[in-house]
Amino acid sequence: MKGKATSFVSMLFLILILFCPEQALQGACKGILLWFRQVLPALLPFFITSGMLVCSGAAEYLSRLTSPILCPLFRVSPPACYVILTGFLCGYPMGSRTAADLVKEKKISEQEGGYLLSFCNNTSPAFIINYIALQNLHSETLILPFLLMLLGGPVLCSFLFRRFYQKDNYQSTQRNSLPACSSASAGTILEDCIYSGIENIVKIGAYMMLFSILISIIQALPADFYLLHYLLLPSLEMTTGITMICNSSLSLNLQYLMVVFLTSFGGWCCIAQTSSMIHGSGLKTVPYIVQKLITALVTSFFAFLYFYLIL
To answer: Over 50: is that where the pLDDT of 109 sits?
Structure first.
């Protein structure tokens, strides 16, 4: 069934590209330029550095430093603290990449990796401040509310999600010794991390290009209705979707609410990127989608209270 669905989607996408070559070319160019200007310089250094920290064992020292606070708060093992740090500071899809790496390295269990994935794959503070608040919404006063909602929402939801996972991650792993550092040379570790980082960043670029092509083709269709332009299209790719919402004729409060929901959810392109990052680790995509939707709804509820009832 899964193979048939993949074949159908592949054939449909090929037909769209063949019958809409101009829109496909425009979408591909937009996607590649967006990846080259925004994502490549922002994420590739983090991919390489994070890989070096994990492979060399340096991430374990960061985990030890933060474990007195993060372990009791989130009920996780010490190695998982590094996933929390990268997931909240580095942006999509670094949280999923780090969680998958630690599961593959046997430094955390698959169950704990699933719990971390449920709340540690978020938009970075830099993206919220620079791209959302300043570049698109043109408001410095929105920086703090957006940071609190978009970073506080996943933290609150983590207390709900951990009820569906084992409750003894923290207690059972506190006494275990952390794995030893890699004995490979620094040059070997660096080369491996560069190759891995380039592979992952190219995958992200490919996904952004494909989703940008899809957006460009759909925009060229004669259909014109509310759900298409304000819900479906923005949800396909987060970065482009935020700009579309902010340039729309919607009221400011509704724009804020939709931007919060989309940023918290991440969009379907981020879902595809995350699925690629966790491939082969045993972590599941479907539960992650459900958890991101729940987080987006919770975050949007607080955004509604703030923008419609408090302001």
So the answer is: yes
